[in-house]
Amino acid sequence: VTLTTSSALKGAIQLGIGYTVGNLTSKPDRDVLMQDFYVVESVFLPSEGSNLTPAHHYPDFRFKTYAPLAFRYFRDLFGIKPDDYLYSLVNEPLIELTNPGASGSLFYLTSDDEFIIKTVQHKEAKFLQRLLPGYYMNLNQNPRTLLPKFYGLYCIQSGGINIRLVVMNNVLPRSVKMHYKYDLKGSTYKRRASRKEREKSSPTYKDLDFQDMHEEGLYFDTETYNNLMKTLQRDCRVLESFKIMDYSLLLGVHVLDQSQREGGEPGQAGSDGRRPVGQRVLYSTAMESIQGDGKAAEALTTDDTMGGIPAKTHKEEKLLIFLGIIDILQSYRFIKKLEHSWKALVYDGDSVSVHRPGFYASRFLKFMSTSVFRKTQRKSAA
Q1: Which pTM value belongs to this model?
Q2: 103 near 123, Cβ under 8 Å?
Q3: Could you tell me which residue ranges the PIPK domain spans (predicted)?
């Protein structure tokens, strides 16, 4: 058996995380120091077991944990208790998602819908390590963000193969049916879902599709709209400061009226339309990720809305919106398949690298604030 078989990989992930998170609990809490971002802890887990590690049925492997204290701090900041993290990731089976992106990454989802484990390339893992101090500083100033919430970075080494994994928040809960899913960049160049994608049972559409399907956009009350825009603007400025571009807004739309017609509450699993027992909102939700005083978000995050943000279509259909910014690790500096040639980069390096992330952010924000999200117009008293 090699670790490339799915069940072996899932098993090794769970063993490794179980070992390192368990190990961390004995370490006292303290402030994160600069050097904590560069620590890599490594443990060898032979299949026959050792005095530190359990025996297992997989090939021998080494498990590396990057910046364990920094990530513990992030988890803490997002209200994730070590026991819950362990329980979600280790005690319940991981669900393999069938290729949701074109990235060639493997994705696993925890049974409780909270966490996604994604395999990343070496350069993406390296980039995340470089990002950590700035990411930390930003989260400290502003925990309400739609940027990805990174909870752990790990590497499994076995038989000469390295498999790097990042643990992140899951933006679209499975327990709420997404009637529409979009990956939006604010660009119109080749931004239509392929025919192959459209044929899927739950396709992910793109910018041009969104404009066809919701040409009027999605309407929010003024306060929610302002909070959402403030959050997106702030997040985009952060990404721009890291010279990151090519990220997307992942947007899930749940049509409330439709799910009632289909005979169920928003949590549509189960024949009686109720969410399976134990499906509760544990961590950061869309509602809690946008600016605002926080109290409103907590009041609105019930087990029925799963933390979705209330919105309407121009026809007053009620919606719940789930969203997050994704794909921030394919940083600009690494993107080789740019729309312009390498020659342009070589000759015109500065102007390109300085302006492009800013241009990307501005275009992204303009699209979101005008085409996608709109403010409900108060009906004038006639």
Answers
A1: 0.83
A2: no
A3: 5-372
